[in-house]
Amino acid sequence: MTRDWPAVQLRIKEHPDFLQYFYECPEDVTWTECDLNDVSETRIPFDVLDTNEAETVFKNHINALQQEEKRLE
User: Fold this and answer.
1) What are the Cα distances from residue 55, in Å, to 3, 59, 60, 71?
2) Nearest partner of 48 among 73, 69, 30, judged by Cα
3) DSSP of 18-58
4) Residues with Cβ < 8 Å from 70, sequence gap 6 or more?
5) Residue 39: strand pairing partners
6) Does residue 2 register a pLDDT over 70?
7) Per its UniProt record, what PANTHER family does this chain match (predicted)?
8) Ramachandran quadrant class, 36 (left: phi over 0; alpha: psi -120 to 50; beta: rest)
9) How many angstroms separate the CA atoms of 42 and 22, rounded?
10) What is the pLDDT of residue 68?
């Protein structure tokens, strides 16, 4: 199991279903400004995964999985 957040982000980006769930904003546009006018867009801006909050959620998930694994042993 990978615990390195940048490696996880890369694996997400390389996943065949990436474009189904994420989109990339142009380089000169932040994710908070990207596609705000398109209300039909349901995908997540990939840049959201660069936030500290996204990394924290990932680390909390890993910790919960480890705790569950220890409990099952």
Assistant:
1) 10, 6, 9, 24
2) 30
3) HHHHEE---TTS-TTTTTTT-TT--SEEGGGGGSHHHHHHH
4) none
5) none
6) no
7) RHO GTPASE-ACTIVATING PROTEIN 190
8) alpha
9) 9
10) 93
Q: Count CB neighbours of 44 within 10 A.
A: 13
With beta carbons less than 8 A apart as the criterion, state whether 25 and 49 touch.
no
Look up tokens 């546009």; give the residue: 29
Tokens of 56: 């924290």
Nearest CA to 41 among 26, 22, 62?
Answer: 22
Confidence category of residue 35, pLDDT binned at 50, 70, 90: low
Cβ partners under 8 Å of residue 23, min gap 6: 34, 35, 41, 43, 44, 45, 46
pTM: 0.73
What does the alpha-carbon distance between residue 34 and residue 70 come to, in Å, rounded to a whole number? 42
